[in-house]
User: Fold this.
Amino acid sequence: AQSVTQLGSHVSVSEGALVLLRCNYSSSVPPYLFWYVQYPNQGLQLLLKYTTGATLVKGINGFEAEFKKSETSFHLTKPSAHMSDAAEYFCAVSASKIIFGSGTRLSIRP
Amino acid sequence: DAGVTQSPTHLIKTRGQQVTLRCSPKSGHDTVSWYQQALGQGPQFIFQYYEEEERQRGNFPDRFSGHQFPNYSSELNVNALLLGDSALYLCASSSDRDRGSSSRAGELFFGEGSRLTVL
Assistant:
């Protein structure tokens, strides 16, 4: 069975600081992994995805994530936070269906 | 190119009533998945439709049912509404071609959701 654990329901960083959102997964098959972002009162938008190949994946808005099989992790990072990054972020793992984590709310301090 | 569209955007029902939510997938997509997102939670998988058949189902009671039409659009029906059914219902579309030989679900494209309030 597949599952996703997001560590930290709320992360707060200063504008310009590093953003690190943590995600660990469990999968019985080589996983496809995703990060989605949700702004208030909107649906989910894909930030980036890992299927096969290069383990460092670059996405939109300057975000990237690294697939580490040995650690079963897929953490999301951004070198410098911007006020517009404030949103809810969801990590997801794919098998026959996509399973989402419980989400991490990112707040940006001026 | 229209993305995923859902209707209605908001609705209020009372306990015991029935509701139908509608979804039109992104152009070129043939698979529709429905998710329930309670306040402060991640989306929970309800079911997925492909070729007008329910291909997979999550851990939801039979009160939740769906349909997919020949044009790939879909409906989610919930009968005998409970207070706990209050949530944002998200429709997501994808292409079965993205599954490839791995049979793993590919990228989902989401609509903006239908927010259901049950009083």
Notes: Residues 36 and 46 of chain A are 4 Å apart (CA to CA). Chain A touches chain B at residues 29, 31-32, 34, 36, 41-46, 49, 90, 94-103 (CB under 8 Å).
